[in-house]
Amino acid sequence: MERNQQLRRQLASMRQSLFDQGHLDEQFILLEELQDDANPNFVEEVVTLHYRDSARLITTIERALEKSPLDFNKLDGYMHQFKGSSTSIGAKKVKAESTQFREYCEAGNGEGCLKTFQLLKRDYATLRRKLEAYFQLARQAGPNEIACRPK
Amino acid sequence: MAAAAVAESQFHVLAVDDSIIDRKLIERLLKTSSYQVTTVDSGSKALEFLGLHDDDGQSINLVITDYCMPGMTGYDLLKKIKESSSLRDIPVVIMSSENVPSRISRCLEEGAEEFFLKPVRLSDLNKLKPHLMKTKIKDQIKQQSQRQQEEESDESDFQSPSPPQQQPQESQQSQQQQQQQQQQQQQQQQQQQQQQSNNNKRKALEEGLSPERTRPRYNGIATVV
């Protein structure tokens, strides 16, 4: 029982730091609210779907950025999809970087796109890693143990 | 009587979105709101589904669609639905991740009931109820008047039901007959609902349907909260 309590505390603080560090916004909380006994893994399912979906987009964008000249319309289109997906899981930093990328697309600024994309990839990878660790811990803490939301 | 019948049967929403994540989200949101949900990933599949289930019990009570989709946009889909004589009464709601006023007014002008900004919240879905109730009641009134017409032309064994509009002098007698009529209608309504729920158990063909029943089903009759 004590071990479990420890795990739960760890889980709660992991979760809190994701918000404190600006990786996640309230959309993530809305996902948690949709989770219940009948759908106990809803958040993890959505997040998993997101990473599967977005990984494909990242590769596509990467390839498109290698082309010369850059097709800003296409890039914007891909990033629009990517941004939507990120928004849906509450990926705050990544979402902001997607917006910035699209602004550079609109301005036809290739340099800006490239730079922003590097930042985006970094934050994307960081969040992915942290969320994977979070869900792994959640599974250890027990199926119904979603960290208590700060009141 | 009509109000009770409306509350008992479940609304069936068709959700259209090319993003698998948004489909999963909207499905969860709709199910949480006690709607029956079918999801498809394109406008053309949506039309296919609507056309296929035009006449049978799988009727769709509302379409909620993403605006930005490859091929047929949500706006195109909206137009097609409103141009179709069989589908135009189905309320359509548009979702979009972008807040573009001209886009919003275009959609509303074309007949969309609501325009939701993504990410869609549960509170947004509360706005759907009045649109759904409207069409359900319209449907029931249509059905009732159709049945009354059928009954009037019928030659039944026992008392043939008289037309609903009675002269004031015959009020007592007509009341009895009206009650019988109502009972018959109710029975028929229940039968229809049972049939509808049986049809609803059939799986539709499209991909993106969620087959799992995570909540216990009450024979197609939802527990309305």
Automatic annotation (TrEMBL), chain A:
Q: Which protein, by its recorded name, is this? A: Histidine-containing phosphotransfer protein
Kindly give the InterPro entries that the UniProt entry links to this protein: AHP1-5/YPD1 (IPR045871), HPT_dom_sf (IPR036641), Sig_transdc_His_kin_Hpt_dom (IPR008207)
From which source organism is this entry? Citrus x changshan-huyou
Gene Ontology terms for molecular function = histidine phosphotransfer kinase activity; protein histidine kinase binding
Q: What is known of its domains?
A: Histidine-containing phosphotransfer domain (HPt) contains an active histidine that mediates the phosphotransfer.
Q: Which PROSITE patterns match?
A: HPT (PS50894)
Q: Which domain of life is it from?
A: Eukaryota
Q: Which Gene3D superfamilies match?
A: HPT domain
Automatic annotation (TrEMBL), chain B:
Q: Which organism is it from?
A: Citrus sinensis
- The name of this protein is Two-component response regulator ARR9
Can you tell which superkingdom this protein's organism belongs to? Eukaryota
